[in-house]
Amino acid sequence: MQCETYLVTGALGCIGAWVLKHLVERNAKAIAADLNTDPVRPRLIMDDGQIGQVDWQVLDITDTEAVKALVAEAGVTRIIHLAGLQIPFCKANPPLGAAVNVVGTVNMFEAALASGMSSLAYASSLAALGPSSAYDSWPVGDDAAPDPRTLYGVYKVANEQTASVYAADSGVGSVGLRPCVVYGVGRDQGVTADFAKAILAAVAGMPFHIRSGGIIPMQHASDVARMFIGCADADMDEARVCNMRNDVISVPDFVERLTTVFPDARITYNVDEEFPFPADLGDEGLKEILGDVPHTPLEDAILQDAAMYRDLLDRDQIDLEQLKQ
Ligand SMILES: NC(=O)c1ccc[n+]([C@@H]2O[C@H](COP(=O)([O-])OP(=O)(O)OC[C@H]3O[C@@H](n4cnc5c(N)ncnc54)[C@H](O)[C@@H]3O)[C@@H](O)[C@H]2O)c1
């Protein structure tokens, strides 16, 4: 793996931080690209030595020439494209959302093409799909018709279709992964961050309200990172889009499991709110590419996260402001 050079966009985000951690642990060369170089989230999960092994770069992915120049000049061989604006940000500023999420992704394909790369991995989203009521075949497979109900979801579908055209016209293959409810240390923004925050609140002894109910598909950020690396390493000659699955669980069940570990936890949830996407997702496509899909059992992941949050709280290294809603 040492001969590969990975470009991770959106590297200061939650998933990006975990991708960097795994790349550094594999002794791989990692270029972290984001709007700044202050590794606030990576510092939550990486030590100083690991932080020092990463090449931190400022990159605005909407800047076509800058993206192409970084990929070419740094000798990038693998792209893990994660940079994006989440649902609330796209809703608040649709033109910026389209520029970052759509144009930014086109730029990554242009850079891969210009540098002669065979394929890349990028983040799509469960939000490319519609509500459960839009589907009548279960589990919902990778080939189920997209039916986005948010601008963010529309932009992600545009990315998936962009990827198909690059594969057909230019031979740049890809895997677009559709994370669902990603939880883990570093997950602190977006509505589905409530599950990671609930674990933090339980450790900190603070009350917390999860704004969702119903049944949710959850993936641990560390597992998601390993999925992205595996898909970036796969030399694809086509454009694939892959659902993720891992833990499919009701919100009350999640809270009960958390309460088993932290009997004094004061976590509530929204009983009236159904999760707005299907939870019963098929991940056969991902299994086909990766073989084994990384999956830390929920109970183990809660314990791991709790230990990391405890350590961060003891060292005063995590901001509890994020628990205010
Ligand atoms: N976390 C989830 O549950 C989830 C679910 C579905 C899809 N996804 C997708 O996975 C990807 C990563 O998710 P995350 O949770 O790590 O997101 P995040 O919001 O934590 O991080 C996104 C990063 O992108 C960066 N970014 C924004 N605009 C940029 C620009 N113009 N140029 C360069 N960087 C820019 C931000 O600074 C941020 O560090 C995103 O594309 C997201 O849409 C995440």
Give me the secondary-structure topology:
Blueprint: E1 5-9, H1 14-25, E2 29-34, H2 40-45, H3 48-52, E3 55-58, H4 64-73, E4 78-81, H5 87-92, H6 94-114, E5 119-123, H7 151-170, E6 173-178, E7 181-183, H8 194-204, E8 208-210, E9 215-220, H9 221-233, E10 239-243, E11 247-250, H10 251-261, E12 267-269, H11 284-290, H12 298-314
Parallel strand pairs: 1-2, 1-4, 2-3, 4-5, 5-6, 6-10, 7-9, 8-12
Antiparallel strand pairs: 9-11
Helix pairs in contact: 1-9, 4-6, 6-7, 8-12
The structure holds nicotinamide-adenine-dinucleotide.
Nicotinamide-adenine-dinucleotide binds next to helix 1, helix 6 and strand 7.
Summarize the structure.
The protein has 325 residues and is of the alpha/beta class.
Tally of extended strands?
12
What fraction, in percent, of the residue positions are helical? 40-55%
Please give the largest β-sheet: 7 strands, parallel
Number of structurally distinct domains: 1
What is the subunit arrangement here?
Answer: single chain
Bound ligand species:
nicotinamide-adenine-dinucleotide
Envelope shape: globular
Protein structure class: alpha/beta
Overview of the structural elements:
Helices cover 43% and strands 17% of the residues. The protein has one domain (5-323): 3-Layer(aba) Sandwich (Rossmann fold). It is globular and about 55 Å long. The strands form three sheets. Strands 3-2-1-4-5-6-10 form a seven-stranded parallel beta sheet, with helices on both faces. A three-stranded mixed beta sheet has the order 7-9-11. A two-stranded parallel sheet has the order 8-12. It is of the alpha/beta class. The chain contains twelve helices and twelve strands. Bound molecules: nicotinamide-adenine-dinucleotide.
